[in-house]
């Protein structure tokens, strides 16, 4: 009976390559460049490892190419139509350009974001797209120290180019639409309530500014207690509205479809009064058009935003400029 071939060891490969075991180990685990091992030796070790059937680390195999063609993206959530669409279209557009996309979800956790960026760099990603990152400048510093291009998407940073939606203009337009509809319903006028988001978040801050500007243009003062910036949570949005009691609002600006879930849950508790509620949402979901009382939604132009990202990627710009992309206002009235 023929016995199976024994798996080669690093020492076997070292003898065949005429190199030290530590040098072979560095080639196989992808750290050969840091040790200033020559490319010719690295390629010889890789060739012999392949011939001998030795399993090779992905990082090490990248030395066979001058470029990895890997582009990485971090996103905060998968279960959100906006971020889900960004991930899907980014993957399609990257592949059409001969690039290999790697996408990971970091759940709005700054430590997970940093860890993901570090791992993508270790796999020799040529560019990292930081989408909705909570600390984009920390990621940009890491990438720049490693010589990796980085571009911010959705939320801007100060140390790398950014592509964001025109949150201010779209929020102002949506607010004006809701106010106009509320004007036609006697007894439902006055200031709207702003629901969801975090005031420390750039996008929320710009949307709130647009919301307030639309009120100011009508001479309407917005009381501080009308700003229910409860974060991106359906439960917290519903709880904040429930605490308003009988004097509940009849006009709402909802800052995301995540918060909208909580709004709809709260709305179902209003009984007959729910028929008078009017709201609009800064986020887009086709199902939203079927919700009673929904005046309109803001759709962020994902294809156009990603076009800008790939243009920046191709130009390898070092500028930290922020490009603003107009949104699409979907009206349901």
From TrEMBL:
GO molecular function: DNA binding
Positions of the HTH lacI-type domain: 8-65
Keywords attached to this entry: DNA-binding, Repressor, Transcription, Transcription regulation
Name of this protein: LacI family DNA-binding transcriptional regulator
Pfam families given in the database record: LacI, Peripla_BP_4
Gene3D superfamilies, per the entry: 3.40.50.2300, lambda repressor-like DNA-binding domains
SUPFAM superfamilies: lambda repressor-like DNA-binding domains, Periplasmic binding protein-like I
Keyword Lipoprotein (UniProt): no
